[in-house]
Amino acid sequence: MTAPERQLLHYRPWHQQPQSWIAIPWAIARLALLLIFRLRIFWLLLALAALSFFFFFYAQYLLVWISQHLAGETVRIAGIPFQAANLFRFLDRLALNGSAQTFANFIWFQGYILVILLAFSGSLLFGNDLVHGSLTFYLAKPITLSQYLLGKCLAIALLVLLITLVPSFILWLEAGLLYDWRTYYWDNLHLLVGMAGYCACLTLTLSLLTAAAGLLLRRTVPLVLVWMGLFVLLRMMANWLTYASQDPCWRLLDLWNNLYLCGLWCLDVDHATVRPLPQPDFLSAFMANTGVIVTCLLVAGRQMATVTNSNM
To answer: Which residues contact 172 (CB under 8 A, 6 or more apart)?
Structure first.
């Protein structure tokens, strides 16, 4: 054995300063985002989210323009005459007026795109770490389970920020420019806090739900089937039971409706205006959502602890 080879076998102490605690989750989140960006379906869904944003952006401008220039006139769309007042009422039903309902509807639509994205990327973020043994590699480093989970959830939080919160803020800025910006921005400053609260509810719930489902199922196909059951079949069942019994408590089975109610509370929307009827109260929706968060946290922690103990 040569002298350089013998030097490689000696212990070499670590001389650099250890990084902060938050630097480790940030590195894990950065790697997780790079994996998601390699998915073709991510760019397809991002384009769909951009189309939804541009619809709200230009429809909000169109509503103001019609009210100012074509209030009592007849316009032709594809050769078919329409009264401008009727078109104005149709667009007004979509709540494209810069109110709290505008941003609640926008985040609700964008959230569906986010849910589809997480259904396909959940196994990539969590399941593959168990299938290919990457979780063992992470834990062989000075990384705790909480740092690992926080890093993955931070990646999902950045996706929520990209798809929901940033476009909502742009729509808020546009609404102020379309109306009287001197009073709109100050009078509706609370909407920024409400949008951040709605996105925080989406982040906390969807990230932990993705973690629990990804660690438990590990594969893409079972994860997509479970996602369809949670957000499609369970929603249909909740609607049927609610309409049959006229009991709003059955709607608590609908996770997506619970998140929507939590978002409406954050945006300070009157409960009497929530549709479709009947709807449970805001407190019940928060309690149901909290139960989902706690359950997912327990499942994710147990799955990671099981893998850790099996490799000791």
So the answer is: 98, 103, 188, 191, 192, 195
The Cα–Cα gap between 127 and 150 comes to 16
Largest CA distance in the chain: 94
What whole-number distance in Å separates Cα of residue 156 and Cα of residue 122? 10
CA distance 205 to 203: 6
3-state secondary structure of 116: helix
Domain boundaries, the chain: 23-310
The residue whose two tokens read 């147990």 is 302
CA distance 134 to 208: 19
DSSP 38: T
Q: Enumerate the H helices of 133-219 as residue ranges.
A: 134-140, 145-160, 166-178, 181-187, 190-217
80 - beta bridge partners? 77
Give, for 83, the enclosing helix (H) or strand (E): strand 80-83
Classify 116 in phi/psi space as left (phi over 0), alpha (psi -120 to 50) or beta.
alpha
With a threshold of 0.90, does the pTM exceed it?
no
Cβ neighbours of residue 218 under 8 Å, at least 6 residues apart? Answer: 123, 126, 127, 128, 130, 131
Return the exposure string of 6-30: e unless at least 16 CB atoms fall within 10 Å of the residue's CB, then b: eeeeeeeeeeeeeeeeeebbbebbe
* Segment 24-66, tens digit of pLDDT: 889 889 989 998 898 888 999 999 999 999 999 988 888 777 7
pLDDT digits (tens, 9 = 90+) for 94-118: 777 888 889 998 999 898 898 888 8
The β-bridge partners of 76 are 81
